[in-house]
Amino acid sequence: MKIPRTTLEQWRVLQAIVEYGGFAQAAEALHRSQSSISYTASRLQEQLGVKLLEIHGRKAKLTESGEALLRHAKELLDDALELEQLAHGLAQGWEAEIRLVVDALFPTPLLLRILKEFAPLSPHTRVLLSEAVLSGADEALVTGSADLVIGDRVPPGFLGDHLLDVELIAVAHPDHPLHRLGRDLDADDLSRELHVVVSDSGTLAPRDAGWLGATRRWTVTSPEKRIALLCAGLGFGWIPCHLIEEPLASGRLKPLPLREGQRRKEPLYLIFAQPQLAGPATRALAELIRACVADGAAAADNGAIENGGPRTPG
Question: Are 177 and 307 in contact (CB under 8 A)?
Fold first, then answer.
């Protein structure tokens, strides 16, 4: 194994000489003697066998070789500082990694806001984000493959806090046979048509949820694929309102005129896999999730009031 002959300290001294414009200025900035700064720079040039500095009047400037080498050295210095910051965070108990599992019903814009605000709070903590459907969130908790979960229920043996309710609405393409009936619909009408659902991402104890009365059912692997099928005129389904704002506005999807059950709400919960072992980064992320959800709810309420009152299911 080869050991570098130069040190990060030498490169930092060279950087300071250039940054501050000379040996005396670098000595003052680094709280060292000028002779020490001069010796360190000379020693670095000797070890490399390359002239790094030229003196113009009282100002030290890099040679072309010096510029090229210091450019790479700056990356090493930045990496070293980041490594020390990481070590400091680990010493304080901040986790190197958080495994976050989020139910597919959770609004993506809200999730992106949460992660964007979390990144500077714990810059050296990796977030491993996974999406879950139905029992997939339960499975992540039971198998220990998650640290923090946003799921549609709290499994036995775990504790969780209610975060929000996601509103779903029954929709189909405007030209779907259900819309062509031209009247209010009931369960018998739905049972004769194709129902498009998203498959359970869990494998240990998969479960069904929602309305199960259709004799014909297609299963897809993601909410996006389900929406694409519905927009193409294939089947009907209950879709989170926040996912289909554009298709509803553009007329590619239309709410089904059900006598009952056109809209329903699905709760989502925030659950620690092992609360007693959750580190500061995991707890900080959990608090940020709660705060952002609360801010989003407050903003939605204010918007509803400004537009004439709270929205009621139709």
Answer: no
Query: Which among 147, 128, 127, 124 is positioned nearest to 137, based on CA atoms?
Result: 147
pLDDT in tens, 222-255: 889 999 999 999 999 999 999 999 999 999 999 9
- With beta carbons less than 8 A apart as the criterion, state whether 247 and 219 touch: no
Q: For tokens 């369960």, what's the residue?
A: 187
* CA–CA separation, 290 and 277 (whole Å): 19
CA distance 110 to 23: 52
Q: Which two tokens mark 159? A: 């504790």
Extents of the domains making up the chain: 8-91, 95-300
Domain at 8-91: CATH architecture:
Orthogonal Bundle (1.10)
d(CA 53, CA 10): 13
Q: How far is CA 305 from the centre of its chain?
A: 30
Give the residue among 127, 128, 129, 124 at the shortest CA–CA distance from 93.
124
Q: For residues 34 and 28, what is the distance between their CA atoms, to the nearest angstrom?
A: 8
Query: Cβ(223)–Cβ(274) under 8 Å?
Result: no
**CA 145/CA 78 separation, integer angstroms:** 33
**What is the secondary structure of 22-46 as a DSSP string?**
SHHHHHHHHT--HHHHHHHHHHHHH
Question: What does the alpha-carbon distance between residue 88 and residue 96 come to, in Å, rounded to a whole number?
Answer: 11
Note the pLDDT tens digit of each residue in 102-127. Answer: 999 999 999 999 999 999 988 888 99
Residue 119's CB: how many other CB atoms inside 10 A? 11
Give the span between the Cα atoms of 139 and 145, in whole angstroms. 8
Polymer length of the chain: 314
Residue 162 β-bridge partners: 269
**What are residue 77's phi and psi, to 5 degrees?**
-65, -45
Could you tell me the two tokens for 133? 């459907």
CATH among 3.40.640.10, 3.40.50.300, 3.40.50.2300, 3.40.190.290 for 95-300: 3.40.190.290
